């Protein structure tokens, strides 16, 4: 549970960070990290279109630079986008200034007020600097679709177990997560719909 749903004490360390969104009743927010890549992201976009859902994509700057047309297609289809650093930089090993420079480099390509740190980890000094420039969006539920230790069925069960009103739910449009995500995403959408949930993107 520590991974799937960040504990309250960890959330309290970053009080100005968004973990859930409570503005609408029975609504969840699908998000996708690490893309866009041509092998996976188009499938995600088509699946979301099939169900009439808008989501939020936290994009790696390097991937945006390599796939500008695909990034433009995400926006054309009405989804929100966010910054996920230039090259999926880990925050624990670098200074606040180095980290912010990396985020700013990605911002030049992505142009979004939303930011999510890779691995959901920030040092407090980095968070203090970033929150003056961005809305820091974390999550309420990590599906763990990237894990080689989990099956698609187990990823789906994580959604069923931990989703709740206002949940910001993380899937990944990445090669590492592709198998589990392609199994779990449509089934999770159908289950959430059957429970009466609505879907929305995170406003930019």
The CATH topology annotation reads as TIM Barrel
Can you summarize the main beta sheet? 6 strands, parallel
Number of strands: 8
Q: Can you give the helix content as a percent range?
A: 25-40%
Overall number of domains: 1
Overall 3D form: globular
CATH class: Alpha Beta
Q: Helix- and strand-based class?
A: alpha/beta
Strand content: 5-15%
Mean pLDDT: 95
| Spatial separation of the terminal alpha carbons | 29 Å
Note poorly predicted spans. none
Gyration radius (Cα, Å) is: 16 Å
CATH architecture: Alpha-Beta Barrel
- Counting DSSP H or I runs of 4 or more residues, the number of helices is 8
SSE pattern, N- to C-terminal: HEHEHHEHEHEEHEHE
What's the name of the CATH homologous superfamily? Answer: Glycoside hydrolase/deacetylase
């Amino acid at each position: 549970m520590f991974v799937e749903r960040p504990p309250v004490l960890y959330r309290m360390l970053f009080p100005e960070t968004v973990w859930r969104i409570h503005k609408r009743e029975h609504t969840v927010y699908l998000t996708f990290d690490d893309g866009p890549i041509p092998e996976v992201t188009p499938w995600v976009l088509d699946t979301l279109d099939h169900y009439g859902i808008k989501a939020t994509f936290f994009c790696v700057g390097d991937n945006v630079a390599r796939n500008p047309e695909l990034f433009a297609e995400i926006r054309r289809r009405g989804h929100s986008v966010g910054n996920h650093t230039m090259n999926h930089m880990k925050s624990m090993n670098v200074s606040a200034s180095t980290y912010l420079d990396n985020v700013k480099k990605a911002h030049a390509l992505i142009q979004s007020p939303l930011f999510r740190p890779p691995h959901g980890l920030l040092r407090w000094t980095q968070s203090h600097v970033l929150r003056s420039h961005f809305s820091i969006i974390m999550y309420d539920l990590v599906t763990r679709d990237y894990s080689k230790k989990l099956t698609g069925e187990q990823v789906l069960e994580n959604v069923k177990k931990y989703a709740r009103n206002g949940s910001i739910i993380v899937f990944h449009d990445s090669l590492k997560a592709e198998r589990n995500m392609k199994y779990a995403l449509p089934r999770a959408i159908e289950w959430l719909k059957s429970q009466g949930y609505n879907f929305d993107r995170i406003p930019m």
